[in-house]
């Protein structure tokens, strides 16, 4: 762990009961740990993806992450420690994070757990692979599991292709409104 990482803080979860979606990342970036907001790295495309997919009515800033609770969206990570990259996360942190994440999801029971990256989902579910979109056998039967591409700027998939996958989530949520 670098000296810079030891000075960073975990980014608070934004969770509540009755949420439509909880977005689940690997762990906070160094920038997120520095400023205390989810998806704060300027190269991360998360906020543009949400707007482009129609999940938010406008482009939000990372500093407004808590405001998304009003839209029915929450945030958490499988590992809470900020790091430079996922390669810095230990097997022990994943094992502990998996248990904590399962307990959070079981308690708050959002309609959808959206895993921001296939790797996040495979670490959580212990399944060797997953397709984009809704998963056939959720670990918590009362909740849907949705796997979406990572919003990291390091992902080589075109932004429009990523946004289209997130749009499936928006379509589902729109059809569920009573």
Automatic annotation (TrEMBL):
What EC number(s) are associated with this protein in UniProt? 3.2.2.-
The keyword Secreted belongs to this UniProt entry's keyword annotation: no
Question: Which superkingdom is the protein from?
Answer: Bacteria
| Gene Ontology molecular function, alphabetical | hydrolase activity, acting on glycosyl bonds
Top-level EC class, please? hydrolase
- DNA repair keyword on record: yes
Question: What keywords appear on the UniProt entry?
Answer: DNA damage, DNA repair, Glycosidase, Hydrolase
User: Boundaries of each Uracil-DNA glycosylase-like domain copy?
Assistant: 16-159
* PANTHER family the UniProt entry points to: G/T AND G/U MISMATCH-SPECIFIC DNA GLYCOSYLASE, G_T MISMATCH-SPECIFIC THYMINE DNA GLYCOSYLASE
This chain's protein is named Mismatch-specific DNA-glycosylase
Tell me what organism the protein belongs to. Answer: Paenibacillus farraposensis
| Taxonomic path | Bacteria, Bacillati, Bacillota, Bacilli, Bacillales
